[in-house]
Here is the input.
Amino acid sequence: MEKNHSSGEWEKMKNEINELMIEGRDYAHQFGSASSQETREHLAKKILQSYHKSLTIMNYSGELDQVSQGGGSPKSDDSDQEPLVIKSSKKSMPRWSSKVRIAPGAGVDRTLDDGFSWRKYGQKDILGAKFPRGYYRCTYRKSQGCEATKQVQRSDENQMLLEISYRGIHSCSQAANVGTTMPIQNLEPNQTQEHGNLDMVKESVDNYNHQAHLHHNLHYPLSSTPNLENNNAYMLQMRDQNIEYFGSTSFSSDLGTSINYNFPASGSASHSASNSPSTVPLESPFESYDPNHPYGGFGGFYS
DNA sequence: ACGATTTGACCCGC
DNA sequence: GCGGGTCAAATCGT
Here is the structure.
């Protein structure tokens, strides 16, 4: 039995992530007792930064699996190699989840979307769960081969709580837009829509190291990094007015490791990045709470 | 007419 | 065999 890629490398990542998360937690603590607006802002940045970095690493590791192992399916085929299909096995995809709460007062008809357009492709009753789980994938899966997917499930007890788990990395052009539209409009020339994630991941990691020291007073530290962070759903959610970021995000890799974090976050970001750049407030997968429409979102398929 | 959603069937890993 | 995830035909909405 061997793991996907050098476990030493993974160990390193794991440690790094761990540190980052602890760091984030500390900031979150401070955030709670921070009095001045400035301090809070600063701390918020820090917190996001920690998460961002962690995710970047997670994503990076996910890609690593795919590339170096040409599929990353740990077992079942040891001598069987699919021709150059980087058909990322789901297992090796980066994955994280977060809880989102629908603000009671806010109109439920507002859109909560994480900036991407999703298409629902399935719904399933989950054992022990009161509500069904919705399965979504990126609208551009077919056209652009974007593999990102997510699952949305309403919490048993608290109907105002949604648990969303994301998988895979957005490689669609939308990824470039989301990441930049929302935080701040300072695109860099390198943000072409053509970049594949494999490159982006690495670049991102590198960039991050530079930019971590460079962000000035951008609204969000993440703004400067390309594509990748679009997967940072947690922050995308924070920006929404109707949904409060609930303060719990967990990342997990395939290697049986998972890290959970809870913190008292009060997302207060404002801007407006929705899937449709201009008009139609496309319903979000999360909030259709009609008896008829458990979730909005997308549904779709693939040959 | 076309794209999105619904929903039962199918597939696959445990 | 069971449960979770995906497919794809039918249906719905625009």
